[in-house]
Amino acid sequence: xxxxxxxxxxxxxxAPVSKxxxxxxxxxxxxxxxxxxxxxxSIKDGVCEDISTTxxxxxxxxxxxxxxxxxxxxQIIGTREPDYFQMDCDESGTCMRMITPVVSLYPNKVRLDAxxxxxxxxxxxxxxxxxxxxxxxxxxxGFPPIIVKGPIHGGKLKIDGxxxxxxxxxxxxxxxxxxxxxEIKVSNLKSRRYVEITLxxxxxxxxxxxxxxxxxxFKIKGGQKYKPKKxxxxxxxxxxxAFMLVAGAIAGRVNISGIKKDSQPDSVVLDILKKVGxxxxxxxxxxxxxxxxxxxxxxxxxxxxxxxxPLAVLACNCKGKSxxxxxERLKHxxxxxxxxxxxxxxxxxxxxxxxxxxxxxxxxxLQGGVIVDPHNDHxxxxxxxxxxxxxxxxxxxxxxxxxxxxxxxxxxxxEGLMVKI
Length: 421
Description:
Blueprint: E1 2-4, E2 8-14, H1 19-30, E3 34-39, H2 49-60, E4 64-68, E5 73-78, E6 85-88, H3 93-103, E7 109-113, H4 127-132, E8 136-140, E9 143-149, E10 156-160, H5 166-174, E11 182-187, H6 192-204, E12 210-211, E13 217-220, E14 232-233, H7 238-251, E15 252-257, H8 269-276, E16 279-283, E17 286-290, E18 298-300, H9 308-316, E19 321-325, H10 337-347, E20 351-355, E21 358-362, E22 370-372, H11 378-388, E23 395-397, H12 410-417, E24 418-419
């Protein structure tokens, strides 16, 4: 159990490596024959569980990996000669949904297993498209485990992107390696900027895809090959940094290095912090946020649902009623995040509710003084810790180690920034 006292914030940290960019780069590097090194300074301190899960997964399909904690890189030697294998995706939905089309390239039967909350996250959207491409694919009534047997071939697909963009990213990564050309028509695409990240990382490895501006149509040339990268710098993670930036905005000052404005959808947190009145400065690879009077805001988080928890914390500290749209995207995360935020922030004294597809929060001083349950969700744990900084009595957080899924150094970094008030 972790106790967080009411505290000010002052200091500097390095952002953790971007989970979304690193997982994509690792999967693609495993398909590039030769040696690739993926670098970010935070790797010297270790990587999160989801990246470790992806590391194990690409080893299952034949890649060789090496982590250098001294120099801050992960080295991957790609191969395309896997044997029969079984893969454990642990609790990483990104890994499972992106790597399933990749393992479908091979004529081997593969079982992809899940742990914890991932067992309850929907996977049915992959069955029909992969069958249309020539693979055998089945799930357990739409949920893990997934059993798939390739090889897939090129073809024309129509897919619904309203629930997740991760499967689309997996298809985009895999289909250029088929002999035939492919075409994908996508409807109701959400989280489009994650697809843009996929396309950017693919381009780094020498593969490009023709698409329209709306990312509703992709024309994929077959017979392409990924080329290894001697050194590819991976950006810092805006999803994790957002909590620390909000901490600076509500409780003092923070400098974060290792992040830069890019295609990660959660980088929009900077615009929101400026909008509510925080001091935001960027330059020389550092983002600085300083506390000021904060005013209520309205924002549509449909395309960046991971921002909901830190934005809920921000809203609790803003004057007036804030409205965050897109709660329908929160049901199938590590927890039902809307329900978890209402439960745990509400127990601390927050004025928070969901109306239709939006969350409404009226800013006020929270009482705290309770034990919170993060529902085994890393982002709920981080939200409760940050909101405790400005509460009357602080909080105690059960199962705080769940933050290791995305940000294993979160509490170490946060406590290093905390100062007495």
